[in-house]
Amino acid sequence: MNFLYSVTVGIDKDIEQEWLVWMKQSFFERVMGLGIFSGYKIYKVLTHDDENSVSYNIQYHCHEIEKIVYFLNHEGKTLMEEHRIKFKDKHVVFNTLLQEV
């Protein structure tokens, strides 16, 4: 079975590049180092229409829902809190857990 943990982040345009560099050089490396997800992709949302922010969608792939639940309840909480503090008041996040049918 395949599962997708999707995270959409709206980030203020004035820190977009700082956020993107940090995500690519720190955050994704740490998430993938946990051995929970088999891979990830990041996409810029092109249909987002806001002059002050830009959105990105990150898709983490996993074969076991239990691993995703573990991530969300343990290491993921710490990583997400770090993200929240680092980019406080400069972002919004929306998460979705999907199952392939």
Describe it for me?
This protein has a single domain (3-99), classed as Alpha-Beta Plaits (2-Layer Sandwich). The protein is built from 3 helices and 4 strands, in the order E-H-E-E-H-H-E. The chain has helices at 16-33, 65-73, 75-86, and strands at residues 3-12, 39-44, 53-62, 91-99. A 4-stranded antiparallel sheet has the order 2-3-1-4.
Draw up the topology in text.
Elements: E1 3-12, H1 16-33, E2 39-44, E3 53-62, H2 65-73, H3 75-86, E4 91-99
Helical run tally: 3
Computed CA radius of gyration, to the nearest angstrom: 14 Å
Computed structural class = alpha+beta
Report the mean per-residue pLDDT as an integer.
96
β-strand percent reads: 25-35%
Strand order, biggest sheet?
2-3-1-4
Domain module tally: 1
SSE order: EHEEHHE
Low-confidence stretches: none
What's the total number of strands?
4
Terminal CA distance reads 8 Å
The CATH architecture would be: 2-Layer Sandwich
In the CATH scheme, the class would be Alpha Beta
Helical content band? 25-40%
Global geometry: globular
CATH topology: Alpha-Beta Plaits
Q: Main beta sheet, described?
A: 4 strands, antiparallel
